[in-house]
Specification:
CATH topology of the largest domain: Rossmann fold
Helix content: 25-40%
Largest sheet: 10 strands, mixed
Bound molecules: S-adenosylmethionine
CATH architecture of the largest domain: 3-Layer(aba) Sandwich
CATH class of the largest domain: Alpha Beta
Strand content: 25-35%
Radius of gyration: 20 Å
Order of helices and strands: EHEEHEEHEHEHEEHEHEEEHEHEEE
Shape: globular
């Protein structure tokens, strides 16, 4: 059985060192299982005293689909085949998705969700997703300036976002248009507006159609990014029923941003409540309505302000099946003194 060594990205370790490698093992297992592989004997191996490789065996030579799965791992810096204990041969990995990875790395701001962690969440959503169709739509219903949405674009998906802070969407639009122009990616932008049944404005937004190659744009094989400035609790009225394959979101941590209460929920302002569970309970029905059968949901949150069991319970009450076993559970890790981040992976039954 060929044995492989994944060289783990050092950026991972700086952020949450102790649990990073354990989390990487879970994520890689989820990716490989979704690619039809059952990795065996996965272990952390130190090279010259530095514990930075994950070693595992695969049945037969790794084929294109398996290599693509490994390349997507959020901790992947490189792959080697183990020839002898300390003799490793580099394995070329394919480029992942469509747009360059830099698309998500240039924009920096306070409150941004770490890109590697966002990739991990998207990987879990893709691994857990059982909905039909090759072209997937990824929704981030509390999208900030769009880290999840940009990761979705890089991975070849259509993406939809909702964000209560309209200023963040203005920044996202300015950044993305500048990025597409600079990179000479063909694109088209259109304003969007949603009203309620009485014709009152619910949300402004925009739609960008683009493609990583000119040929794809001309052939109408375009990717779409659509966003709305609105409270996420309006998702039932903003989004088409059964239109999303995956939901991925990093919820407000209840530390700096808080979440906005229903009473004062306008796109521009809101009062701070420190109850993320209330927001999640009120938002979930609208999110679930937008999910296709078999669609997956991955939410991350601060387990100091929203207990993992409570988040899972709310998902179950909303009709989702929570995936409680490895490789979809066991991701809790310390980010800083006030944030102990965890996530829940769930799926809408087929
Ligand atoms: C942890 S941040 C997500 C950051 C995002 N992943 C990024 O990298 O830009 C949580 C986001 O939820 C937004 N938010 C809070 N309450 C909301 C609500 N009721 N509806 C929609 N968005 C909300 C906040 O404005 C914030 O942008």
């Amino acid at each position: 059985m060929p044995r492989y060594a994944l060289l783990v990205h050092p950026g991972h370790n700086r952020i949450y060192f102790e649990t990073a490698l354990a989390i990487s093992q879970l994520e890689l297992t989820a990716l490989l299982q979704a690619a039809g592989q059952a990795p065996q004997g996965m272990e952390i191996v130190a090279q010259a005293g530095i514990p930075t490789t994950l070693r595992f065996s695969l049945e037969g030579e790794a084929m294109a689909q398996t290599l693509a799965a490994i390349a997507c791992s959020s901790s992947c810096l490189g792959l080697f085949q183990v020839i002898e204990q300390d003799l490793l041969r580099p394995v070329a990995l394919p480029q992942i998705g469509t747009f360059p990875e830099g698309m998500n790395q240039i924009l920096r701001y306070s409150g941004k969700t770490n890109e590697q962690f966002t990739r991990l969440m998207v990987n879990l959503a893709k691994s857990a997703c059982l909905s039909e169709g090759a072209q997937k739509t990824l929704l981030d219903p509390m999208c900030g300036k769009g880290t999840t949405l940009l990761e979705g674009l890089i991975r070849g998906d259509n993406v939809v976002g909702v964000e209560i802070n309209d200023k963040w969407l203005t920044d996202m639009q300015a950044y993305l248009i500048r990025y597409l122009k600079t990179g000479r990616f063909k694109h088209r932008i259109k304003k969007e507006k949603r009203s309620d049944e009485r014709g009152r404005k619910l949300a402004d937004g925009f739609l960008i159609e683009t493609a990583a190659t000119r040929d794809d744009f001309v052939a109408d094989a375009r990717q779409k990014l659509q966003v709305f400035a609105s409270d996420t609790r309006n998702c039932d009225r903003l989004l088409r029923k059964q239109s999303c394959d995956m939901i991925v979101s990093d919820l407000p941590y209840g530390v700096q941003h808080g979440s906005k209460t229903a009473a004062k929920a306008t796109p521009a302002k809101g009062t701070i409540t420190r109850r993320p569970d209330e927001l999640l309970a009120e938002a979930l029905p609208g999110w679930v309505r937008a999910m296709k059968p078999g669609a997956s949901l991955v939410i991350s949150f601060n387990a100091f302000t929203l207990k993992t069991d409570r988040a899972a319970e709310l998902c179950t009450q909303a009709g989702l099946q929570v995936l409680t076993e490895a490789p979809f559970a066991g991701y809790a890790h310390r980010v800083d003194q006030s944030i102990n981040r965890d996530l829940v992976v769930a799926r809408l039954p087929l």
